[in-house]
Design brief:
Layout lengths: L7 E5 L2 E4 L8 E11 L2 H6 L16 E4 L5 H7 L6 E3 L2 E10 L5 E10 L2 E4 L37 E8 L4 E7 L11 H4 L9 E4 L5 E4 L7 E3 L5 E8 L2 E6 L2 H13 L7 H24 L13 E2 L5 E2 L1 E4 L14 E4 L1 H9 L14 E6 L2 E6 L4 H10 L1
Parallel strand pairs: 6-10
Antiparallel strand pairs: 1-2, 3-9, 3-11, 3-12, 4-8, 5-6, 6-7, 7-8, 9-10, 12-13, 14-15, 16-17, 18-19, 20-21
């Protein structure tokens, strides 16, 4: 089996990561995150052309209130960096990297008045503009008004600054009211989605949160694969999220594997539903049998959960909806990455009749992989099916 492109090269917080391209993928631990949800006024002022409003050039900064991030937290965020002394308060000049942009810049943040700290020189159409590259429309897809001279409503535009364990500062942004389906999320990261426009804060409880500098859309990674789903609990009218249970995750994976056609008859759908219920037990047995290791790559592409066990998923090699069977040989334990590759990459036809000595070779994107079955795989599953 050729795995040259899939060998793990870094290990962080109990998680193994593959570096497909050393220059394109770098994952670091996070110390803290400061965020701000822009208001309509923020968006207008940092984009309007000179002379739009009578009486001055207007705001050129993005404010973060001290009620959200106080002086002590700012000092901790910039710990080790010298600060200039000004009548309004401390000010820091620091090197800032931008997600999606292959260069850095010197950015200034300081106390503008008693009630706020500000990210300076963010007005786009100004001679003194030093717009953060990650928030600059020329470098990223950062939103711009249709007509900069007119106020318009901006929805759910959040900017953030992340301090990594290696001492680097990174900037990024997103625009959505809730996490996208494939974004790893936990309670701490969820804070960035809550609150009204103008909301800001600092996330210091970053244990288990990692930062992928190669992903400008959502760089955050967490030690648990569980995503969050809306909770029935509501805090002052704001939605909260909870982690999905393992059964919910299993159900989603089975739904994806089964590829049920809209033309499937009611009888077929009922059979698939029964298979799914039965598979919950099979999945747990299989994971225990392989100790969470992938049948294609071993422990290389999986990671440890909070309880120390390896996280893995179970996949139907041939979807049930595509005439695949619920056969003991059609179910395999795989890493999350291999699972997605089997769904979305270019996978060679899989003929289970070609299995020899409990293994078979397939290709994924023209790379060869060998699926290996444990000798007791068949025995355990047959016993479970009878029970």
């Amino acid at each position: 089996m050729r795995t040259s492109a899939l060998n793990p090269e870094k290990f962080y917080g109990g998680i193994e990561f593959s570096l497909f391209n050393r220059e394109m993928l770098s994952i670091e631990k996070i110390r803290s995150i400061i965020f701000r949800k822009l208001t309509d006024a923020d968006f207008f002022n940092i984009n309007k052309p000179p002379g739009t409003e009578v009486g001055g050039g207007g705001q050129s900064y993005i404010d973060i209130p001290v009620s959200a991030v106080n002086l002590k937290k700012w000092r901790n965020f910039f710990k080790g960096l010298p600060s200039g002394k000004y009548s309004s308060g401390p000010r820091w000049n620091f090197k800032l990297h931008s997600l999606g942009v292959n260069k850095s810049q010197i950015t200034t943040i300081g106390q503008r008045r008693k009630a706020t700290f500000s990210i300076r020189s963010q007005k786009l159409l100004s001679r003194k503009s030093n717009r953060v590259y990650a928030w600059h429309p020329e470098y990223t897809k950062f939103p711009v008004p249709v007509d900069p001279s007119k106020r318009e409503h901006i929805y759910n535009l959040v900017i953030f600054l992340a301090l990594l364990e290696n001492g680097e500062y990174w900037a990024g942004w997103f625009q959505t009211s809730k996490p996208e389906q494939d974004w790893p999320i936990n309670d701490a990261l969820n804070e960035m989605f809550l609150g009204e426009a103008g909301g800001a804060g600092i996330i210091e409880n970053t244990k288990g949160i990692l930062f992928d500098v190669s992903d400008p859309e959502w760089p955050f990674r967490i030690e648990t694969p569980s995503k969050l789903v809306p909770s029935k609990a509501v805090d002052k009218g704001k939605p909260t999220f909870r982690e999905k249970s393992e059964d919910e995750i299993i159900k989603e994976l089975l739904d994806e594997d089964e590829s049920v056609d809209v033309d499937t008859t009611p009888t077929q759908k009922e059979v698939i539903r029964k298979i799914r219920v039965r598979n919950h037990k099979l999945i747990r047995l299989l994971k225990d049998l392989y100790n969470g290791k992938c049948q294609l790559t071993g422990s290389n592409l999986t990671f440890k959960k909070r309880d120390g066990t390896l996280y893995s998923e179970v996949h139907h090699l041939i979807p049930i909806g595509d005439e695949g069977s619920d056969s003991i040989l059609n179910l395999v334990v795989v890493s999350p990455l291999i699972h997605r590759m089997l769904h979305y990459a270019d996978v060679s036809p899989i003929d289970l009749t070609k299995i020899k000595d409990n293994k078979i070779t397939i290709t994924i994107n023209e790379e060869e992989y060998t699926i290996r079955w444990h000798p007791d795989h068949v025995k355990i599953i047959e016993k479970a099916l009878k029970g």
